[in-house]
Amino acid sequence: MAKIKINNIDIEVEENMTILNAAKLYNINIPTLCNYPDLHINSECRICVVEIEGRKGLVTSCSTPIKDGMVIKTNSPRVLNARKTITELILTNHDANCNACAKNMNCELQNLSSVLGIDESRFTPTLKVSPLDDKNPSLIRNPNRCIKCGRCVIVCREVQSTNVLEFMNRGHQMTITPSFGKYLSAEECTFCGQCSSVCPVGAIMEKDETDKVWTAINNENKRVIVQVAPAVRVSLGEELNLSAGTIVTGKIVNALKLMGFDDVFDTDFTADLTIIEEGNELIKRITNEEPLPMITSCCPGWINFAEQNYPELLPHLSTCKSPQQMFGALAKSYYAEKIGKKPEDLFVVSIMPCTAKKYEAKREEMSIDGKNQDVDVVLTVRELGKMIRQMGIDFKTLEDVPFDNPFGITTGAAAIFGATGGVMEAALRTVSEIVNQEALENIDFVDVRGLTGVKESKVNLGGKDVLVAVVHTLANAKIIAEQIKNGTSPYTFIEVMACPGGCIGGGGTPYGTNTSVRKKRVDAIYEVDSAMAIRKSHENPTITKIYEEYLINPLGEKSHHLLHTHYQPRQKKQYESKKNIMATY
Question: Is the full-model pTM beyond 0.70?
Answer without folding.
Answer: yes
